[in-house]
Design brief:
The chain is mostly helical. Helix 1 crosses helix 2 and helix 4 crosses helix 5.
Length: 125
Amino acid sequence: MNSPRTTLYRDKHNGKIMGVCAGIADYTGINVFWVRMAAFLSIFMLSGMTILAYIAAGLLLNKKPPYLYRDASEQKYWQGVRQSPKRTAREIRANFRDIDRRLAAVESHYVSSNPRLTAEIERLR
């Protein structure tokens, strides 16, 4: 089952008609203006298909929960996850490696300046 943050919703709060374009914009991270412009232009290119797809999406998609994200940075993070899960996983692994490296440096600093602590750590190994 999908996480609530990786699901496409209608965004009635930021929407104009049914919230479909605003929901797509929220899901993809694309500015809602460009999503609306693409929908508007596709009406002339595909005529009835676009309107039917829009109505179907408006009826089938769930309404976006009011507090899906805590703040804009969390929203941007989840948009990145939806756009490229592999890249997001790589970034998280890189962050953990950096934290591990910095923690090892702190441990090394404190252990090297405290012979009693060094002996205690060696005894525990």
